[in-house]
Amino acid sequence: MYAIVDIETTGGHASANGITEIAICIHNGNKVVQRYETLINPGKDIPVYIQALTGISNEMVQQAPTFKQVAYDIYQLLHGHVFVAHNVNFDHSFVKYHLAAAGYNLECNKLCTVRLSRKILPGMASYSLGKLCRQLSIGNSARHRAAGDADATAELFTLLLNSDNENHITEALKQRSKEKVLPPNLHRKFIDKLPSTPGVYYFHDNKGKVVYVGKAVNIRKRVDSHFSGNNSGAQRQEFMRHIHQVSYQECGTELMALLTEAVEIKRLWPKFNRSQKKLEFNFGLYTYEDQRGYIRIAVDKRRKYSTPVHTCSSLIEGRNLLARMMDTYNLCPKLCFIQINNDTCTSTNADKCACTGHEPADDYNQKVNQAIEGLKQALPTFAIRDEGRKDDEHSCILIEEGRLYGMGYVSHYFEANSISQLKNYLTPYPGNDYMHNMIISHAERYPWKKVDFGVMRELA
């Protein structure tokens, strides 16, 4: 038996919205044998635009039962039947959420008439319920009302049952089938071609635009995990509606996938990626020459279109680093903005300090340049060589003076004798602090993967 369901709601996601109307048609595989419908008081105002769409006003539901009052009847109708709806994950998420709030745990198989229509009736101009029914001459006297849409969906479902020559419905109902959890607009063919390897995957909208980028140790498994569960939040519901295609890029290792994900998020700026869009260090060491010709060093917030001589995660970290440079190279605390009052300079050579003009600018600037050069020399230059996408290649990531130069894949037999030679095989990428720290941390955890130029060697 099938329970064909349609609901009207106060909004797009269950966790913050209520149901205003529900209709259920019990279908025995041949025809509808029972109908149920009721208005529901959602316990909150119905937005004006939804009132205009559905025709259901606050006054109409004022005397209607709450969902909790009809939850038992709804549960009895749905329990043990296949839950069928047009874009089933939307209706199911609402009904399951509100049944759970009333103390009932709904566990049932699901069928989506959007997905089934795409398979059984290919080539339609649109698969929205209204347009699809018009193309198939299915009447609906109460569009955007639960009873009218449920009856139309029931007639559509009967047509699908009678037209299913390739047993798509039977396949979708199998326990291991993922059809019932996939987004309504995502064809199964995109899932079937995904590999079980490390890499990056892309979700595309109906225009082909990338709306989400993710990384995975196992691409197929990770993509499947996006569609499991019954999260009823607004973000997930909107996310699922926008997924029309999936593409992927294989990577040799999880680290390569992590770095590629970070690069792609910065390049594509996908709508549903929240993290990593602002994963940058907020402060840096900057230098400039003042009117007297002295080079001054300051810790300041990162500025767009400017390049600091060094980056740091906080103001305190930057000031501590600058203090160590002052001690090592005898720099002036006033010219480094560590001492900002008008008191006598706290330098050990205050009477001969640059801030008083006693130390010539050329002499002082030489010390500043030595400090900056020492900072750069302390930054690591190395490569990480690891497994590739195929047996005959290795992945390779190059860090030059603490910054990502690039990454790519080299032959299993390739040996680099110079940094310039290696660069010929790598693609340069714009790194950021998140990526640099990730690579350096990886090298510390797996020192056998870290190699110096001249001793690049094959992995055992």
From TrEMBL:
CDD domains assigned to the protein according to its UniProt record, in alphabetical order: DEDDh (cd06127), GIY-YIG_UvrC_Cho (cd10434)
Any one GO molecular-function label of the UniProt entry: 3'-5' exonuclease activity
Source domain of life: Bacteria
UniProt-listed InterPro entries: DnaQ (IPR006054), GIY-YIG_endonuc (IPR000305), GIY-YIG_endonuc_sf (IPR035901), GIY-YIG_UvrC_Cho (IPR047296), Ribonucl_H (IPR013520), RNaseH-like_sf (IPR012337), RNaseH_sf (IPR036397)
GO biological process, one term: nucleotide-excision repair
SMART domains: EXOIII (SM00479), GIYc (SM00465)
Short name of any one Pfam family annotated for the protein: RNase_T
Cellular compartments per GO CC: cytosol
Keyword terms of this UniProt record: Exonuclease, Hydrolase, Nuclease
The GIY-YIG domain, residue ranges: 196-274
Complex formation: DNA polymerase III contains a core (composed of alpha, epsilon and theta chains) that associates with a tau subunit. This core dimerizes to form the POLIII' complex. PolIII' associates with the gamma complex (composed of gamma, delta, delta', psi and chi chains) and with the beta chain to form the complete DNA polymerase III complex.
NCBIfam families assigned: dnaq (TIGR00573)
Job description of the protein: DNA polymerase III is a complex, multichain enzyme responsible for most of the replicative synthesis in bacteria. The epsilon subunit contain the editing function and is a proofreading 3'-5' exonuclease.
The protein, known as: Exonuclease
Organism, scientific name: Mucilaginibacter galii
